[in-house]
Write a structure and sequence with these properties.
With about 280 residues, this protein is mainly beta. Helix content is about 10%, strand content about 40%. Strands 1-21-18-23-16-15-14 form a seven-stranded antiparallel sheet, with no helix packed on it. Strands 2-3-4-9-5-8-13 form a seven-stranded antiparallel sheet, with no helix packed on it. The chain has a four-stranded antiparallel sheet with strand order 17-22-19-20, with no helix packed on it. The radius of gyration is 19 Å and the shape is globular.
C-alpha cells in the first residue's frame, strides 16, 4: 500500500510546454514505467490560458473536479464534484482555459498498452525540443524516420520515448462519459454496518469501476480479494489500514497483494472516491 497526504506535496510545473498554458501539478502517486497498469494520480490546476486541440489517447483518464469548472469540450464543463471519464480511443476537446483544480488519474486502459508517466514525458519533450518546435499543442519537427511531421504533441513524445508508433484502440464510447454523483444513491455495503457505496459506472470488458465509499464513525470496510489495483482519494476523515493511519485529504493505492485487508474509520466519518483498474487475469 502506498499513501500520501495532500498537504505534504508542493505544487510544481509540468516541466514541458507540449500544451498551451502554465498548468501546475501536485504529483501524488505513480506506478511503474512499462507496466500495462502504470498510472499517475495528481492534482491538476488549469489556468485561464490553458488549452489543447481535439485529441485522444491510448490510455484512460478520469477527472474529479474539486474547484472551479473543468472544460473538456466547447460548452461542456464539470463543476465541483463532477466526474468525467475519457476512455482510451475516445476524442475530446478542444479545451479552453477555465480556471479549475481537478483530481486527475491517468492509467493503462483495457487495451493493455499502458501509460507513459510524466518523468518520461518530460524527458521526451526536452529531447524533441532540441530538434523541433511545440506550438498550440502540436509538434513540428523530424519523426523517428527523420521525415518532417506535424502531430499531436503527446503522440510525438510517446513515439519518441517508447520507440514505437502509438496504436489507438477503437473507441468503445463515442464521447467522454460525464457523471453527476449527486444523482446517484448511496447503497449499504452488504454485511458492513455503517459503510455505503455509490457506484458511478463499470466500463469495458475488463471491468474498470469508479465510485465513492463512505464510512460512519467506527465502521469497517473489508477490502476482500483484489484482482487489480485500487486507487482511492480520501476526501475527508481518517482511515486505519492495519496500524497505519491515512489522513484526508490524501490518496492511497492498494495492490493485489493487499487483498484481505480492512479500512476502518477512526474517530470520525470518512468519504473516498475510488477507481478499480482494468482486470488482466494472469
Amino acid at each position: 500500500m502506498h499513501s500520501v497526504k495532500l498537504d505534504d506535496v508542493e505544487w510544481s510545473g509540468s516541466g514541458t510546454r507540449h500544451r498551451v498554458g502554465t498548468e501546475k501539478f501536485k504529483y501524488l502517486l505513480r506506478g511503474q514505467h512499462g507496466a500495462r497498469d502504470n498510472y499517475e494520480l495528481s492534482l491538476f490546476w488549469t489556468p485561464p490560458t490553458y488549452s489543447t486541440p481535439r485529441h485522444h489517447h491510448n490510455f484512460d483518464q478520469l477527472r474529479l473536479t474539486l474547484q472551479g469548472e473543468f472544460e473538456w469540450a466547447p460548452g461542456r464543463a464539470t463543476g465541483p464534484g463532477g466526474v468525467v471519464y475519457m476512455p482510451e480511443g475516445t476524442y475530446y476537446g478542444p479545451q479552453g482555459g477555465i480556471d479549475s483544480v481537478v483530481l486527475l488519474l491517468q492509467f493503462g486502459g483495457a487495451n493493455g498498452a499502458g501509460f507513459m508517466g510524466y518523468d518520461e514525458l518530460r524527458r521526451g519533450y526536452r529531447e524533441l525540443a532540441e530538434v523541433g518546435t511545440f506550438e498550440d499543442g502540436i509538434y513540428r519537427g523530424p519523426g523517428a524516420d527523420g521525415a518532417h511531421q506535424e502531430v499531436d504533441s503527446y503522440q510525438a513524445i510517446y513515439e519518441h520515448v517508447m520507440g514505437r508508433p502509438v496504436v489507438y484502440p477503437p473507441a468503445r464510447y463515442e464521447d467522454p462519459v460525464e457523471m453527476d454523483p449527486t444523482a446517484y444513491a448511496w447503497v449499504p455495503e452488504p454485511g458492513e454496518p455503517g459503510v455505503e457505496r455509490k457506484v458511478l459506472g463499470r466500463f469495458s470488458e475488463r471491468g474498470t469501476e469508479l465510485g465513492f465509499l463512505r464510512w460512519s464513525e467506527g465502521a469497517v470496510h473489508e477490502v476482500g480479494q483484489l484482482r487489480a489495483r485500487l486507487v482511492m482519494f480520501l476526501q475527508s476523515g481518517h482511515l486505519l489500514w492495519g496500524e497505519e493511519t491515512i489522513e484526508g485529504p490524501g490518496a492511497f493505492a492498494l495492490e493485489i497483494e493487499d487483498s484481505g485487508s480492512s479500512l476502518a474509520a477512526t474517530d470520525m466519518a470518512a468519504e473516498a472516491f475510488y477507481v478499480s483498474f482494468p482486470v488482466f487475469d494472469g
